Amino acid sequence: MSCREVVCLAHKGCGLLPFHTRIAVCLILIAEATFLGYNLAVRAPIETFTVAALTLACAVAIKLTSLRVRPNERTRLKRILEQLQGQTGLGQQLKLQWIPNGSATLAGEVRENIIYLYDASYEEAAETLIEEFVEYCIAEASKPYITALNSLIKSINEEAYRRRDKAAKAIAKLLKPIILRKIKRR
Predict the structure, then answer these.
(1) How many structural domains is the chain composed of?
(2) Is 94 left (phi over 0), alpha (psi -120 to 50) or beta?
(3) What is the DSSP letter of 186?
(4) H helices within 67-89, ranges in order?
(5) Exposure string (b/e) for 102-131, b if CB count within 10 Å is 16 or more?
(6) What CATH number does residue 133 fall under?
(7) Rounded to two decimals, what is the model's pTM?
(8) Tens digit of each residue's pLDDT (9 = 90 or more) over 46-65
C-alpha cells in the first residue's frame, strides 16, 4: 500500500476528527507502514503505538470540540447569574464556569463558590444554572442547622467518651485484684 493510499484511508476513516488530527493520524500510519516496509524491529508492536496515538488524537479532538462555546452564550449565562443574584440578594460571591461535556455524570455543581455547568447546550446550561443557584441558596439557609447539629454531636461525643472512660476505669479496678491473684498463683 502506498503512502497516498494510507492517507486516503485515514482521511475517510477519521472524517469526524478535526483536520490537524487527521493529518497526525496519517503521519502515524505512514510511519507504521515505513517501519513495516523496512522490517524494522521495535520494542513494542507498532499497532500498540498507533492505537495509543489514535486514542489520544480522538480525546484531544473531542475536548477541543466540546470547548467551542460561543462567547455570547457564556455572556448570557453570566447575565442570568447576575440577575439571580440581584433579584434575590443572595450568592453575591458566586462565579460561573461553563465547561460543556465536562462531566459524564453531573449537569452542574457548586464548589468553592463557583457554579460549574457541564451541559453541552446553552438551554440546558441555563436551566442547570438556575437549579444550582437555588440549591446553593437552600444549602446556605440550612448552614446554621448544620453548625448547631455539629456542635451538639461534638458535645454528645465528648460526654460519651467521658462515660466510656469512667466505665473502663471502674471495670479495670474490679478486674485488677482477680488478675493479680491469678498471676501470683503461677
Answers:
(1) 3
(2) beta
(3) -
(4) 71-88
(5) beeeebbbeeeeebbbbbeebeebbebbee
(6) 3.30.2010.10
(7) 0.49
(8) 455 554 555 554 444 444 44
